[in-house]
Amino acid sequence: MVRTATGGAGTGTATAGGRMVSIGAVLGQLRDEFPEVTISKIRFLEAEGLVEPQRTASGYRKFSPQDVERLAQILRMQRDHYLPLKVIREHLDALARGEQVRLPAPGAQRDLLDGAWEAEQDRPTASRIGRVELLAAAEVTEAELVEWESYGLLAAGPDGGYDAEAVNVARLVADLGRFGLEPRHLRSVKAAAEREAGLVEQMVAPLRRHRNPQTRAHAEATARELAGLSVRLHAALVQTALGLRLQ
């Protein structure tokens, strides 16, 4: 079991008899202190390079006690101080070098995030644009927009407005159309995007349901980070597939 440290970034010791353990066993060790942690979360932290478990010949992950404690430190920094992964990585690197790390006071971070969350909730829908504004910004016609909407590539909200990102979507659909790609060809792209969004939502749903505004704010930051990684992975996979097919 992971034992909580008394201050700092956490210096508790995670032990399993000194053995290398599977990701399922790691989850079991962390769950007492971090009930919302999931296997997907652990894999995500690995993908970000924050923990590097060994691999068996068959490709299975094996975590040392030091790996488990490192995961616990990461999760504490997120839970208690709401630090982004980039800052957490810097703190861990500093600790590895034997340097002292000064973390922000949890109370101060709470106040900051409370204010950010309240500002977000109170913000008017200035980030949304009307239909006429969308047509002008994207430089497309009403007929084109109607067709794209019929294929689900764009959709107005309940208020009749569009998210600011709709402009980017409209421009990209128009650009692809110049190469002969019609809206019907892009339905699979839309479906893939919805599946990726579903995966992100699955990851952050437990945090979004939390009653604390700080935790909900952390959920939104995590969702944005996951979305960015998903987009990068999608682009890399498309490039790889094209490279293989054009060889």
Task: Indicate the topology.
Blueprint: H1 23-31, H2 39-47, E1 54-55, E2 61-62, H3 65-81, H4 85-96, H5 106-122, E3 128-129, H6 131-138, H7 142-150, E4 162-163, H8 165-177, H9 187-208, H10 213-246
Antiparallel strand pairs: 1-2, 3-4
3D structure, described in words:
This protein is 61% helix and 3% strand. The chain is mostly helical and 247 residues long. The protein folds into 2 domains: 23-104, Multidrug-efflux Transporter Regulator, Chain: A, Domain 2, CATH 1.10.1660.10; 125-246, Multidrug-efflux Transporter Regulator, Chain: A, Domain 2 (Orthogonal Bundle). The strands form 2 sheets. Strands 1-2 form a two-stranded antiparallel ribbon. Strand 1 and strand 2 (61-62) form a beta hairpin. It is elongated, with a radius of gyration of 22 Å. The N and C termini lie far apart (51 Å).
Q: Identify the overall geometry.
A: elongated
**Cα distance, first to last residue?**
51 Å
Q: Give the number of domains.
A: 2
Counting DSSP E segments of at least 2 residues, the number of strands comes to 4
CATH topology of the largest domain, what is it called? Multidrug-efflux Transporter Regulator, Chain: A, Domain 2
The major pleated sheet works out as: 2 strands, antiparallel
Tell me the strand percentage band.
Answer: under 5%
Instruction: Give the averaged pLDDT, no decimals.
Output: 79
Percentage of helical residues? 55-70%
- Category from helices, strands and their pairing: mainly alpha
CATH class category label of the largest domain: Mainly Alpha
Mind telling me which CATH architecture of the largest domain this is? Orthogonal Bundle
Helical stretch tally = 10
Runs with pLDDT <50, length 5+? Answer: 1-16, 112-126
Return Rg in Å. 22 Å
Topology pattern, helix = H, strand = E = HHEEHHHEHHEHHH
- Looking across the biggest beta sheet, what order are the strands in? 1-2
